[in-house]
């Protein structure tokens, strides 16, 4: 007799919980925007994003002066909007620089 009452109660609980999860809005996230790249005099490069949410970091690809070594990936730390992601880099040729964002 108890199993007959327990089954429908479990089903109702699961459906209610699933319904609450389905209608709960996700927090609004917008990738960082208004981002800039700047270079320092001491072989540093940095990114700064002024608006949005989430994080950003500076990334670059260098070409080593010895062709057999190939390309060198360089990346800065993840920083929140309003923060600075910075990295130093060795004296090789810069091929590309960009800002990676998440969130």
Q: How would you describe this protein?
A:
This protein is α+β, with helices and mostly antiparallel strands and 103 residues long. It has a domain at 33-102. Helix content is 21%, strand content 46%. The protein has 1 helix and 7 strands; from the N terminus they run αβββββββ. The strands form 2 sheets. Strands 3, 4, 5 and 7 form a 4-stranded antiparallel sheet that branches. β1 and β2 form a beta hairpin. Mean pLDDT is 83; it is low at 16-27.
- What structural class do you assign from the helix and strand content? alpha+beta
Shape, principal axes of CA atoms? elongated
Order of helices and strands: HEEEEEEE
**Strand portion:** over 45%
Unreliable sequence segments: 16-27
Query: Helical amount among residues, as a percent range?
Result: 10-25%
Largest sheet, strands/sense/barrel: 4 strands, antiparallel
Q: Give Rg in angstroms.
A: 25 Å
Q: What's the total count of β strands?
A: 7
So how many helices?
A: 1
Can you give the mean pLDDT? 83
Tell me the span between the first and last alpha carbons.
51 Å
Brief description of this entry?
The chain has 103 residues and is an alpha+beta fold.
């Amino acid at each position: 007799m108890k199993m007959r009452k327990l089954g429908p109660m479990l089903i109702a609980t699961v459906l209610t919980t699933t319904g609450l999860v389905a209608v709960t809005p996700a927090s609004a996230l917008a990738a960082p925007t208004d981002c800039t790249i700047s270079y320092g005099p001491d072989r540093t490069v940095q990114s700064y994003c002024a608006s949005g949410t989430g994080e950003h970091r500076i990334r670059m690809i260098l070409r080593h002066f010895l062709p057999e070594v190939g390309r060198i990936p360089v990346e800065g730390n993840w920083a929140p909007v309003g923060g600075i992601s910075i990295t130093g880099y060795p004296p090789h040729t810069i091929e590309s620089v960009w800002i990676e964002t998440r969130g």
